[in-house]
Structure formats: C-alpha cells, structure tokens
Specification:
alpha/beta, Histidine-containing Protein, Chain: A, GMP Synthetase, Chain A, domain 3, 6 helices, 9 strands
Length: 217
C-alpha cells in the first residue's frame, strides 16, 4: 500500500501533468488515503479537472475538494451573457432534449431545472455548464422521469458489470429497492468506482444510485 507521502507526491505530479490545469495555487494534503485539495483555480472546469486528476491516482480512498474558483479579470461575464451562452451550449450538447431544461443564472452560478429521460442527459447538461467562461458554480436540479423497471433489472445490471473490462464484478453486489440501486463491495481504484455507478445508471427506470463501493486493496 502507498504511504500518504507517496499519495500526496503522486497527486501533485498528476495535477502538474494535467493539460490546461494551472496547479500553482493548489495545495495537496493526504491523510489515511483521504486527499484534500485547497487553494484557487481560474475556472469551474479547472476545479473539476483537478478532482478527476486525483481520482486517477491509485491509493486514494476519498477526496475533499475545497478548491475555490477565482475568475481572471478577462473571464468575467454578466449573468445575461452567461444565460445566453448556457442556452446555446445546451442546444449544442443536447439538441433533442434542451427544451426540457430551464436555466437560471445568478451571480455567476447556473441552476438547471426540469425533467429529463436519462441520467446521461443530466450529467452532460452539467458538464456543458462547467465549461462556460464566467461560471463559478452549477446547481443541478434536474430529475429523471418515471420509467418502468424491468423485472430482472438486478440481473441486467449484474450482467453489465461483468461485461465491463474495467471492473472485477465478483467484488460488487447490487441491491434494488423500487427505482433505487445500491452498490456495495470493494474496488481497486476510483476509476472502477465511477464505472460501476455509470453502469448502474444505464439501466432503464433507475432514478437513484447509491454507490457504497469502497476503494482500496
């Protein structure tokens, strides 16, 4: 197992290695495999990139992302400008479902509201907002429409987990309660942790995924 010193070193190196991320003002702390990021970044996308970089490091058990967004002077936008850019970004990213999403902008923060059919639409809408210049935060209040659940949905999810080349499905268990899926078990990396959740979200009718999978040896 990695020591905290090794994890902190690897995280710092990965942050410096990540394209389009200036890690100059990011401080890294590691305690018992829990990594804490503090400091400032110049955009919301940079903040998310930093978090993704930490998740790529083996040995990281959990992340506390306490980074703040400090916009550059040339990245400042008024709320109406952000709202127009947000509407255009949604039309480009989700041309067939953008009309289902309402956008509210206040003090640089974007709030998404409405009902969508799939979890991927909720995630892609939020990702599109994070990439916009001038956005300091995103509140995702999108909900999924009610859809019928297949009677064998537990087996379908288990089969999908086994098909994934990135997972050891034998270490993951699946429980179903109505439209809620709960995953438990243990995986080796955050990448596996995220892949398992994405697989469960792909099942028709799933409205909530609780990922209790632990990351560790």
């Amino acid at each position: 197992m990695k020591t905290d010193t090794e994890i902190r070193h690897d995280v710092a190196e990965e942050l410096r290695w990540t394209p389009h991320l200036d890690a100059t003002d990011i401080a890294v702390k590691a305690t018992d495999g829990v990594v804490t990021l503090t400091g400032f970044v110049s955009s919301l996308e940079a903040l998310c990139s930093a978090e993704r970089a930490v998740k790529r490091i083996r040995g990281v058990r959990a992340i506390a992302n306490d980074l703040s967004v400090r916009l550059r002077s040339d990245a400042s936008r008024t709320d109406p400008e952000i709202a127009r850019a947000a509407a255009a970004a949604l039309e480009h990213e989700l041309p067939y479902s953008a009309h289902l999403i309402r956008i509210v902008v206040g003090n640089g923060r974007v709030t998404l509201e409405g009902l969508v059919d799939w979890q991927y639409q909720k995630e892609r809408a939020e990702e599109a907002m994070r990439r916009l210049v001038g956005v300091t935060g995103v509140t995702n209040l999108l909900f999924l429409k009610d859809r019928p659940m297949a009677s064998d949905i537990k087996q379908q999810i288990a089969n999908a987990l086994r098909r994934s080349a990135d997972l050891d499905a034998n270490r993951i268990s699946v429980e179903i309660d109505g439209s809620k899926v709960t995953l438990s078990g243990r995986v080796h990396s955050w990448s596996e942790h995220e892949t398992a959740a994405e697989t469960a979200w792909s099942a028709p009718g799933v409205k909530q995924v609780t990922n209790n999978i632990c990351v560790g040896p």
